[in-house]
Write a structure and sequence with these properties.
Layout (H helix, E strand, L loop, with lengths): L5 H13 L3 H14 L4 H13 L3 H13 L5 H17 L3 H14 L3 H13 L8 H15 L3 H5 L7 H8 L3 E13 L4 E12 L5 E12 L2 E12 L1
Antiparallel strand pairs: 1-2, 2-3, 3-4
Helix pairs in contact: 1-2, 1-3, 2-3, 3-4, 3-5, 4-5, 5-6, 5-7, 6-7
């Protein structure tokens, strides 16, 4: 007979979760955790299943149990923070929810968790202070992009993968507007900037959506070093 390894056990729980069969996911997760109580990725799915079934106190207990583990994965930590934030938001503790969402984003560990944390924060209509240097950076970027001045756009980015993004911007832009929403500090030099974009490319309709830019403070000023999200449709 086939011996199941950790990935098989996780897959069993995840299959139920992905099909939104949350009661079955909860049951399967509890079965796995009875054998492997420190399996933090399964505990996250248990907690998220409990959350989906509006079992808020049970969900929060399991999310906090993940954080109490000795060596949870970075991904599990991020999802636990998101979950604690969701429970807090649904039980009227908005300040706590915002702190948890910010912690999940700052963990910088998982795209899905970061997106969920940002969606939570935006649902709560949180306001954020954006410093003038970042406002100035994006004003220059918008102006250069809308004018299709490729050299000016390239001067604002670090060489590397992000240059492919620049190639898609300069040369075919009719409208490019960045509405700054949130700033998340990762290190003294690196920040994540969330924005709502309004763009129109040549022969295309206007498109809007969320973008998350990664900026670095260099000796020459702020530079774009990554585009973590660009959910513009």
């Amino acid at each position: 007979p086939k011996e199941f390894d950790d990935s098989d056990l996780l897959l069993v729980v995840k299959r139920f979760f992905d099909k939104q069969e949350f009661a079955d996911a909860e049951k399967a997760a509890n079965t796995v955790l009875a054998l492997y109580p420190n399996f933090d990725e399964v505990r996250v799915l248990l907690a998220r299943s409990l959350l989906a079934r509006a079992k808020y106190s049970d969900a929060e207990r399991e999310f906090r149990a993940v954080l109490a583990e000795k060596m949870p994965t970075a991904r599990s930590i991020a999802w636990a923070r998101v979950g604690i934030g969701e429970v807090a938001a649904r039980t009227g503790r908005n300040s706590e929810a915002l702190l948890a969402a910010a912690a999940a984003i700052s963990a910088d560990a998982d795209f899905g968790a970061s997106l969920a944390a940002r969606q939570l924060r935006n649902r709560l209509n949180a306001s954020a202070a954006i410093d003038d240097s970042i406002k100035s950076f994006f004003a220059r970027f918008d102006q250069a992009a809308a004018a299709n001045r490729k050299a000016d756009v390239e001067a604002l980015v670090m060489p590397g993968e992000v240059t492919r993004f620049v190639g898609g911007v300069a040369g075919q832009t009719v409208e490019w507007k960045t509405d700054l929403r949130h700033l998340d500090k990762l290190t003294n030099e690196t920040v994540l900037v969330e924005a709502v974009m309004t763009i129109r490319l040549l022969n295309r309709e206007v498109e809007t959506g969320m973008a998350v830019y990664r900026l670095s403070r260099t000796a020459g000023g702020l530079r774009l070093i990554g585009v973590d999200m660009f959910e513009v449709r």
